[in-house]
Structures are given as C-alpha cells and as structure tokens.
Design a protein that fits this description.
The protein is mainly alpha-helical and about 550 residues long. Helices cover about 70% and strands about 5% of the residues. The chain has helices at about 1-20, 25-40, 75-85, 90-110, 125-140, 140-145, 150-170, 175, 195-215, 235-240, 255-275, 285-305, 310-315, 315-325, 340-370, 380-400, 405-415, 420-440, 445-455, 460-495, 500-510, 515-540; strands at about 45-50, 115-120, 185-190, 245-250.
Length: about 550
C-alpha cells in the first residue's frame, strides 16, 4: 500500500510542477479522467488464484465491482469531473478534486477487503464485439475520403462487422485461431458462506491423502482450514474447475499503480485549478484525449517490457566486471599471435562495403520503381493506375519486413557471410528509397511538366527534362542518408552471421574477450561519426 501512495504522490507532484509552469490544468484533469476510465475497464488490478497457474486471472476493477460495489465511485467521480471540466474555471478544479478523491477512496477500499472466494462469470461475446467494431470502424474510415461512396462504404462496414462478430464468436471460425478471445473478459461475483464452507470441508477431507504425498516428497504438511479464505496458495481443484477463485485484493498489478498515479494527477491538477482558475486552454479536450491515449498505450507497454530499474541494480556487479575486463583495449598481442585491431579494421571495411553495395543496388532498382509508384506520373490510363497501386502495395508489404528477418532468411538460404547482409540491405532499402523517391516525384513542380506537354513532348521526354532535373538532387540526398542508415543496420546484421564488424563483436562477446570486443565498439563509434559528418556535409551541398 505504501508503494501505491508513492505513485499517488508522484502524480500530484507532476500536476503541481505543470501548474507552476503555468500549464493548463484542465487538460490534465480531462486526460487523467479518460485514462482512468480505460484503466477501470481494461487494465488488470488484482489477482484471483485457481488450482493451477493457468487458472489464475488478473481481474480489472470493473471485473470485481460485484464483489465491492463501492468501486463504481471511480467512473461516477470521473464522469462528474468531465462534466464540470466543460464549465471550466473553478468548477473544473472542483471536479478534478472530487474525481481524484473518489478514485482514491474506492481503490483504497478495495485493499481493505479480506481474501475471499468469488465465482467467475465470463462475458461471452464482448471481445468478439470489440474486434468486430474494429473491423467495421476501419472500413468506415474510408468514407471520409470518399463522400460520394459514403453510403455503400458504411453499409459494407456494417456487414463486415456483423460477419466478423459471428466468425470470431464460433469455435470453428475465429475461436480456432484465437481461442482465448472466447469468454476472455470475466466478472467475479461473491459466493455465499455455505458454498465456501462446503469446499473448505472437501479440502479438509482430502488433506490426509495430500499430506501423505507431500511427506514422500519431503514437503511440510498442510494444516486444516476453517474457510477457503485461509488458503495462502492455490484453491482445491474441484473448486477451481467449477469457476471459483481465491481473490487476493492486496496482490497488485500494473493497473493498480496506474489508478493511484492518475488519481493523484487528477487531484493535484484539480487543486491547482482551484488555486488559479485561469490555467486552462480552449483545446483542452483535444489535448486531454491525446494524454489519455498516450497513457492507455504507454502504461501496459511498461509492464509488457518488464521495465524494472531494480534489475540494473542487481546486474551492476556484471557491468563493473565487464568494464574491468574491457579496459584497456587489447590492440595486439604478438606473443599469442592475436591482432584485434587488424581484424577490426578489416571487418569495418567489410561493413562499409556491405552498406555501400546494398545501397547502390537499392538505388538502381528503386529509381524506375519510384516513377511507377508516383501518383502524378501514372494518372493517365486505368492500366497505369493499376500499375501504381500494385507498385505501392509491393513497396508497402516489403517495407513491413525488418532487415534482420530478411537477413535471417537469406543466411539460411545462402549461408553465413556478407552476401546475405548485402542482399538484406538492398531488399529493404529498395522499399525505403522507392517510397522516398516517389514522394519527391509527386511533389515536383508542375510548371515545367505542363510546359513540355503543351509542346507535344512524349512522356519519356517529360520525365527526362521536366521531372528528373528537379528530383535528382533529392534522390542523391536520400541515397546518402540511406547509406548512413544501412551502415548502422549492417552492424546488427553481423550478429546473425551476415558478416562484418557485428559478427566480430558477437564472437568476442560470446567468448568473454571483452578487451578485444571493445576495440570493435570504439571503431564503430569513430566510423559512425565520420559517416554522419560526411553525409551531412554532402547533403547540405546537394539540397
């Protein structure tokens, strides 16, 4: 609980600092409120254990409302804050204070609840409905850019949404590919004391047999329990299979930290707004929506990536050991016939050459493709329009495959060595340069083009004399910049066996020869800076 209070204080401090800087407080009230609604419905808050670890679920605040109806204060307080925020001034500040306090009282009340048994009730069709709405919404967005076709597009969106719902909802359809989506969202309802007592008695009856097994395994015997709430770990298998779970309010998940942080932010922003009613802007609602979207994506991202600064503290001894072994760098050891500097220089040269050849090949093939992917060049006939869409589709699909994946496939196909790296760089750079070149062509000045077309010049002559002189400097600038990127990419490709200095660093790191590996790192830093300054100077002369 202390850690949760620290998150509340952190949110309040952030609001105070923004208020001291004369930032709008109303947008923080709105952003924190909207984010709280998302957290309330979608982020895991506590833990409910079953018999096995796969039976354990992490319910949201909305999922445990039947156990503690007091939690409804959170959405009610937030909605009140959003309504008062429309009035602005001190009314918005009062709403922020009321919403923050209501959230803290309700969320804090949950942690005062004892460990208890609850029954799971899956909400069938909810996730399938959300997926169907996503499909329908994605299609409906096309209607904004095509007003003449808006009605057919919206009808198609509704039909696609309905079909998607029924497909996802059937075990033979989406359920076969996304089985966890069926009944994914669950509510927890309290159970009567009689049911809990029956399961406790069944647990005690099975305890002698269970303790006999534990004794053979050398484990401590378990004590009889008065109720299932006395269990510290898993609940009996029979209770778990019937949908019962052991709810542990004090077991916090990342949603709990988000709730207390956002409540502190809302409360602090409300107090600052009460103190100075002028801390608001006309576009606060738009900014608040943006803040809520960022928080809704960022908070679970921190949890999914297992972000924990304590791991750096635990791993600090290794970092010290690495620094001790890596310095001073070993440039050469004639006695052992080891010459790391010579090998590094050789591998750096290979890396530069990989980037150079890959960029050259990409530029050669990207130039003709870019004209086919430019809207203004291919707008003459239906056939050319089809070529435009196919070329754009090809570039977009291929650009979605990372260079590293392409390198892994090519290493498996052609073997270890720089050739796989060159081809991976060329293939991925082809899509990048093709996209950049085509945009440069589309933004070319129409004046020279129209002048040549008025004289009856052919399409090839128009491209040669009207478009190319305008875009060629940009082509060269983009190619130089892409070469700079490709050099950095080729460093990573070496880690998967595609040759170059990355392969050298990976080999030395794996064998613990840190004093030789650091020579490669230093060489990379030097060469990257040289290429960066050289390419920047060259681009400034070209554009």
């Amino acid at each position: 609980m202390t850690e949760l209070l620290l998150y509340t204080l952190l949110g309040g401090v952030l609001a105070v600092l923004a208020g001291v800087a004369k930032g709008s407080m109303r947008r923080w009230i709105i952003g924190a409120g909207l984010a709280l609604l998302v957290v309330f419905a979608a982020f895991p808050f506590s833990r409910a254990r079953g018999f096995l670890s796969r039976d354990t679920i992490d319910p949201t605040l909305l999922g445990v409302v039947p156990v503690l109806p007091l939690l409804l204060l959170i959405p009610l307080g937030v909605l009140l804050a959003l309504v008062l925020a429309r009035r602005g001034g001190q009314a918005a500040g009062l709403g922020g204070v009321l919403g923050g306090v209501a959230t803290l009282v309700a969320a804090g009340g949950w942690y005062l609840q004892p460990v208890q048994i609850a029954k799971l009730y899956p909400l069938e069709g909810l996730i399938e409905l959300l997926l169907a709405l996503g499909v329908a919404g994605s299609i409906a967005l096309l209607s904004f850019s095509r007003p003449r076709q808006r009605v057919p597009i919206l009808i198609g969106a509704v039909v696609a949404g309905v079909l998607a719902f029924f497909w996802f909802h059937t075990p033979q359809g989406g359920g076969a590919y996304l089985p966890k989506s069926l009944g994914y969202y669950k509510l927890l309802f309290p159970t009567p004391p009689t049911a809990q007592q029956e399961f406790a008695e069944a647990y005690n009856r099975a305890l002698p047999e269970l303790n006999a097994i534990r004794k053979e395994l050398g484990q401590d015997e378990l004590k009889p329990i008065q109720s299932l709430a006395d269990l510290q770990g898993a609940i009996p298998q029979q209770a778990s299979s019937e949908g019962y779970r052991l709810v542990q309010p004090a077991t916090t998940q990342y949603g709990a930290f988000a709730v207390f942080f956002l409540a502190g932010l809302m409360l602090g922003a409300g107090l600052m707004q009460l103190r100075n009613a002028s801390l608001q802007e006309p576009d606060d609602f738009r900014a608040g929506i943006l803040i809520a979207l960022v928080a809704s994506f960022l908070i679970p991202a921190f949890d999914a990536t297992e972000f924990d600064l304590n791991k750096l503290v635990v791993g600090w001894p290794f970092l010290q050991q690495f620094a001790d072994k890596a310095w001073p760098p070993l440039l050469a050891d004639p006695g052992a016939e080891r010459y790391p500097l010579q090998e590094v220089l050789s591998q750096i040269a290979v890396t530069v050459q990989m980037a150079l050849v890959g960029t050259f090949l990409a530029a050669i093939f990207a130039m003709p493709l870019s004209f086919l992917a430019a809207r203004n060049v291919t707008s003459g006939t239906p056939l050319m329009r089809s070529v435009f869409y196919l070329t754009r589709l090809f570039l977009n699909v291929l650009r979605g495959v990372p260079t590293l994946i392409i390198a892994l496939i090519l290493v498996a196909a052609v073997g270890l060595g720089p050739f796989a790296g060159v081809m991976a760089i060329a293939i991925h750079s082809l899509t990048e340069l093709g996209k950049l070149y085509s945009e440069a062509i589309e933004n070319a000045d129409k004046g020279p083009v129209e002048a040549l077309e008025s004289t009856g010049a052919s399409g090839v002559n128009v491209v040669r004399w009207a478009i190319l002189p305008q875009v060629l400097p940009l082509f060269v600038s983009y190619t130089v910049y892409n070469f700079e990127i490709n050099f950095r990419s080729s460093l990573v490709l070496g880690l998967v066996g595609a040759g170059g200095i990355g392969y050298f660093i990976n080999e030395k790191m794996a064998s613990g020869q840190y004093d030789q590996m650091i020579v490669g790192v230093i060489a990379i830093v030097i060469v990257v800076n040289i290429i960066d300054f050289a390419s920047s100077w060259l681009r400034s002369r070209l554009v």
